[in-house]
Amino acid sequence: MPELERHHQLAGSRPTMEDARVTVVVVSRNRREELLRSLGHHRSPVVLVDNGSTDGTPDAVRRTHPHVEVVELGQNRAAAGRTTGALRARTPFVAFADDDSWWAPGALRATADALEAAPRVALANVDTFVGDEELPDPFSAVLSASPLPHRQGMLPGPRILGFMACAAMVRRSAFLAAGGFDDVIRFPGEEERLAWDLTARGWALVYLAGPAVHHHPSRQRGAPERRERGLARSRVLTAAMRLPWNAVAERVTAELRAGAPGRLGVLDAVARLPQALRHRRLLPPEVLADIEMLDRVTTDGVREPTVP
Predict the structure, then answer these.
(1) Class of 3-215 per CATH?
(2) Where is the Glycosyltransferase 2-like domain positioned along the sequence (predicted)?
(3) Domains of the chain, residue spans
(4) What is the pTM of this model?
């Protein structure tokens, strides 16, 4: 047995449960070491969805963290694996975590309390602190400054139209009714379409200050150019699924002008365009107005989380 697994088996007793209203859903693929380190930090029931790992991840988790429910997909479904995890959950709220992130002590309870007290809120994005230095992720500041009006009445924080999946808790029923994460967008950039669809259904998404997620980015992360290429692909596909054609053209043009990663992302999107168009559904005018407002006020270029 590898030394890391032996260590976790000796110290891997079930962690103290913080909140029975929340299931933590983790999706992983071939990041066994990071995953084994992070799983012990979770303080609610955990569902691990394995996206076709070939490094022995499922068996290692069963040996070292027997309290974790392991779902083996046998293939890489990327972000859509989180939807599978939410379907397996039996709690009213689902908190997402990556294999290199975890919710800080007290954060699950505080966020569930906020969602329980605000029945029109489908999703709360909390603060994220990155690495051993615990640096605040700049995306939290972007969310906290959201100018969107509170159409749903009193909310526990600013209304937002984007989020970081690994720092989000969702109302399970609303998440599943909106389709969850899909097989078209995959990863990264999977959050945008879901945020738009939840809002179109009359739900609010909020930034919640106080509760926090710790994110220690995996050493197996790809090159930044690869991530930018993936984000460009996702932005184009999301636009094709939900925006008017003139807005789709504007997005494609912006990506083509953004540099090599953007151009390659557009080419990648073309290959998936038939699949995206099968799911095309135009957003209602009020959501399109929200998107236009955010596009107007975005001046610093921070549109996505800075780390995956």
Answers:
(1) alpha beta
(2) 23-175
(3) 3-215, 224-283
(4) 0.91
